[in-house]
Design brief:
single chain, mainly alpha, 3 domains, 8 helices, rod-shaped
Length: 174
């Protein structure tokens, strides 16, 4: 494409209004000015934009209503009040969540303490059964014995102990 037929890039076209108003930074303005001086197509685009702005200037401008400022400020105050309501609702929700989390933590700690007490402090009946297993295995035999007189008679027998005369005097009943 010839130098005099180069079109403006989309970025340059977006900055063209700022260039025409003199609001574009110097480096970018120099790039657009160079392109406009070298390309007839780019100059036509700039001229069309200028004519469009001139035609828009001839259109009647609507007058804002007298109460526009008052309505705008009322809306702003209303939005501000609603924002405060939202913030207070959010704060209340956060407070409720913290209380709920506190209660949940207290319940879990209580459950843990109760479990620990049950496990380590409360007597476990299974441990006692294991400790007294030999007694439990021979419980029926112990019930058949009844009292100690039967055991004393057994101890006096030759098969279960010493000879009755060989026993020390302390253990013998006379």
């Amino acid at each position: 494409m010839a130098q005099d037929q180069q079109r403006l890039t989309p970025a340059e076209r977006a900055n063209l209004v700022a260039y025409l108003d003199g609001e574009l930074p110097e480096g970018e303005a120099r790039v657009i000015a160079t392109k406009l001086s070298q390309s007839a197509t780019a100059r036509r685009e700039a001229e069309q934009l200028e004519r469009t702005w001139d035609l828009l200037a001839h259109l009647p401008r609507p007058d804002p209503p007298q109460d526009l400022t008052e309505r705008t400020l009322t809306e702003v105050r209303k939005l501000h009040t609603e924002g405060e309501k939202f913030e207070s609702a959010l704060t209340n929700l956060g407070g409720r969540f913290l209380r709920l989390a506190g209660w949940a933590t207290a319940i879990l700690v209580s459950f843990g303490i109760g479990s620990a007490i049950t496990l380590y402090v409360w007597p476990n009946p299974t441990v006692r059964l294991v400790r007294d297993l030999s007694i439990a295995e021979h419980l029926d035999e112990y019930r058949d014995v009844g009292d100690f007189t039967f055991l004393k008679r057994l101890a006096d027998l030759k098969e279960f102990g010493e000879e009755p005369d060989d026993r020390p005097a302390k253990g013998r009943q006379e």
